[in-house]
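User: I'm putting together a small comparison set for a docking exercise, and I want a reference complex before I start. The sequence is below, and the ligand is glycyl-adenosine-5'-phosphate. Could you produce the 3D structure with the ligand included, as structure tokens?
Assistant: Of course. I'll restate your input first, then give the structure tokens for the complex.
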Amino acid sequence: MAQEDQLKKLISHCKEYGFIFPSSEIYDGLAAVYDYGQNGVELKNNIKEYWWKFMTRLHQNIVGIDAAIFMHPKTWEASGHVGAFNDPLIDNKDSKKRYRADNLIEEYRDKLQAKIDKEVEKAAKKFGESFDRAQFVSTNARVLEVQKQIDELTERYDRALNANDLNELRQIIIDCDIVCPISGTKNWTEVRQFNLMFKTQLGSVSEEASTIYLRPETAQGIFVNYLNVQKTGRMKIPFGIAQIGKAFRNEIVARQFVFRMREFEQMEMQFFIRPGSEMEWFKYWKEMRLRWHKTLGFGDDHYRYHDHEKLAHYANAATDIEFKFPMGFKEVEGIHSRTDFDLGQHQKFSGKKIQYFDPELCQSYTPYVIETSIGVDRMFMSVLSGAYTEEQLETEGAKDSRVVLKIPAALAPVKAAVLPLVKKDGLPELAEKLMKKLMLRFNCQYEEKDSIGKRYRRQDAIGTPFCITIDHQSVEDNTVTIRYRDSMKQERVAIDAVSDIIAKDCDINNLLAQLQD
Ligand code: GAP
């Protein structure tokens, strides 16, 4: 299926089954802002629980906080966001559409790469098992020519970014014949810098009001609370502070569904360490975070690292964990070695001493920081796209199909559906009794409308791992049928055993236990 079609299918599935709706849809929506529906919020909360418990329960030296969204405006001067949290934008004069100049160039480069991939695919088909990929890409004339273009472009593009040379970015767009996808023309404006922070006013009287920002990342709430937490928690280095919360960015090009939004949620953890130990801890967090992702079971081939060659001025190492989304491999999480930049800047701007006295070294220093930063919404999208499966079935000789979300049971929004086969003969009463017991442990649904087949399909579409059917035999011998989502196998079990069967698969500790060292 083409990448675009996959994404479209995912978006419409999310809407149809109560996962994600466009914001204020009755007014035709608001660009790049989304609301989570009844199933979406459950899945999102489960993702957050998986992250929160991994950080704060599995690591005795990590604690959580919940800082305010509004912060003193000096915070953003100190962090560098007022001066440099910019994207280079360019407008097409004919379509009046605005683009990120860097995105236009990177998409053009992706297209070149796609040409190589196509050649390789064609050759692999032609030569079958004897195909040697490495030899093909290093000798095929067409591939070598395109690879040369990619390398030259990358070098020129990196140089322009490093030098913050906006004219050169524009020139690359012109030289590569990049056209506006809407107008098809090359009638481009100059490239300008655009600050991504949303501004608002604090205070009711205009003369007294001061400009404040909606935070563009949650991390600064952690940095400004470093001393509070370290002192009140008597934390010893190395230790971490974790936080989940909303962040806001006025993205120029906000698209690809919840991948790039203007209001989104982050799960960030800052790990405070001794200067000089950063490479060791960077390696640790890089590996641990990838393990956390892989434990969900979507397949190791769905993940890869992208190490940054171009580093922000305050970082001495950075990598992204990329997930294979419907639109290809894209960043879902960043791991950054941020040195002592942030704490150092807050010390400078606030005039307050932000130091740690290390009793083992008998020495004070500004701690270094390793940051892990993941977007809840991107993580949500990775889970849904990894789980979305279309299956062709054959039931009793007849062809059928289903869409099933193979969400890991511990994250599934609804854990079990209780389904009386008919609405009479004491079946609903027995089903309600079971439902009452299960609802104390799990999010469950009770459904008695429509045929059992239709009810199974509805539950498959929202990823419910277990369907429990109550039939006439249940009333006689207190057994029920349990149907497993992925295999569709059915089994007769004692009604009293159901709760523990569900718990065995749905307990989030199953995932966490795999991550204990
Ligand atoms: N404190 C570091 C920081 O904010 P970032 O790479 O800008 O780093 C971290 O963002 C993560 O936040 C990204 O990996 C992504 O998952 C998520 N994220 C960033 N911008 C986003 C947006 N506009 N919409 C959705 N998620 C976003």
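The two ends are 39 Å apart (CA to CA). Residues 402 and 457 are 7 Å apart (CA to CA).
User: Thanks, that's exactly what I needed.
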